[in-house]
Write a structure and sequence with these properties.
Interacts with heterotrimeric G(i) proteins. Interacts with ARRB1 and ARRB2. Interacts with MLANA. GO terms for molecular function: dopamine binding; L-DOPA binding; L-DOPA receptor activity; L-tyrosine binding. The chain is built from 14 helices and no strands.
């Protein structure tokens, strides 16, 4: 799983709280991480593969949301591969990992592997947090018609730039002035933990606010499109709201154990002796949440695909082709029924007004379609009964 304790364990003079959790049934813990990450990896790839019997789907050209969702899944897949590799080495070569505890050892490869694998996992999941924040920002901008493929470049710069900067800064402060002298005090560890959990806390705080404002903007957009707000429009807004709720629910379930575990371990670090009997319940709670982290952190990838797309089924179609989301048909239907050809003897102002009306209608439909690229079964039925789909 992704925890700053992985980097802290690379210090030969690690603190007692880190020693407590890392030495608690390491074989069982590594086995849990491998099993959870492997299951999540396979199911995530299965979810992303095209399926037989599904209607072709294609995202609107002006959308960057589909790219962001794919990048989130890629970060989870690569992070899960890092967990599998790291835990496999720990299980297969226990003597190799034991050399990390030797502060004056001449073999640098165990420490290099420890630091490198921990940084890989931390960097990929941190980037996933930033991409999830960008998704919330992009969803709001799409409704405001201020986003497009050009903004994806800015998202790349912000996500990878901040993820790399915070990861390198936290590691540099933790291991300063050298790997053998790190963790001599909390002044080394606290900046590392802050840089690690900053994007996670940002998503927990900012994304619900952005999602709530997006849902409100969608309701206004649906009302303003036809001047009415029917039951179908209300159901459409509810579908989008439910999708955002599922995304945040998955995030909270997968990462709240990390926050709880880190709070408990920090409290234990401040105690003179963490092995005292009054602290037994706290130690047990820290160990339980540590194992839970090993299960839930890697499962984020698969659970996110369920929140993004719903269950896509088992029947894989290896013939790659472009696929169109059901909501895309709204735009084509609207354009086909409302954009009547204007005779040459029409006045120019009538032609311009119809052109503007058609453009606004198409932009509104594309904005809704971007936010609604979820499972094809229930959403397609909802779309075909919507007045927007029928080209009112």
């Amino acid at each position: 799983m992704a925890s700053p304790r992985l980097e802290t364990y690379c210090c030969p003079n690690r603190d007692a709280a880190t020693q407590l959790v890392m030495n608690f049934q390491p074989e069982v813990f590594c086995g849990v991480c491998i099993g959870s990450a492997s299951i999540s990896l396979l199911l995530t790839i299965l979810q992303l593969l095209p399926k037989k019997g599904q209607s072709p789907r294609k995202m609107p050209k002006a959308s960057s949301s589909s790219t962001i969702l794919l990048l989130i899944s890629i970060c989870d897949i690569l992070g899960g591969l890092g967990m599998i590799f790291r835990s496999s080495v720990w299980l297969g070569f226990p003597g190799f990992i034991a050399n990390i505890s030797v502060s004056n050892g001449t073999d640098v490869w165990p420490s290099a592997f420890c630091v490198g694998s921990a940084m890989w996992i931390q960097l990929l999941y941190s980037a996933g947090f930033w991409w999830l924040f960008c998704y919330a920002v992009d969803s709001y901008l799409v409704v405001r018609r201020s986003a497009g493929l050009s903004t994806i470049v800015l998202y790349h710069m912000m996500t990878w730039g901040l993820a790399v900067m915070l990861c390198v800064e936290g590691i540099a402060l933790l291991y300063y002035p050298s790997l053998s002298s790190c963790e001599n005090g909390l002044e080394h560890a606290i900046p590392h933990y802050i840089t690690t959990y900053a994007p996670l806390l940002l998503v927990l705080v900012a994304n619900p606010i952005l999602f709530r404002r997006t849902v409100s903007a969608v309701a206004s957009l649906l009302k303003g499109r036809q001047g009415i707000y029917t039951e179908n429009e209300r159901r459409l807004g509810t579908e989008i709201q439910m999708r955002f709720f599922k995304i945040m629910l998955v995030f909270v379930i997968c990462w709240s154990p990390n926050v709880i575990n880190e709070t408990l371990l920090f409290y234990l670090e401040l105690q003179p002796d963490i092995n005292e009997m009054p602290l037994k319940n706290l130690r047990s709670a820290a160990l339980i949440t540590w194992i839970i982290m090993g299960v839930l952190n890697p499962m984020q990838g698969f659970l996110f695909t369920l929140a993004f797309y719903g269950w896509t089924g088992w029947r894989v179609d290896l013939k790659w082709r472009k696929r169109e989301i059901p909501w895309e048909s709204m735009s084509s239907s609207t354009v086909g029924e409302n954009a009547y050809p204007s005779p040459v003897n029409y006045q120019s102002n009538i032609h311009d007004s119809k052109k503007i009306s058609t453009t606004d209608s198409q932009q509104t439909d594309e904005a809704i379609s971007i936010l609604s690229e979820a499972n094809t079964s229930s959403d397609e039925r909802l779309t075909r009964s919507s007045p927007i789909y029928q080209g009112w």
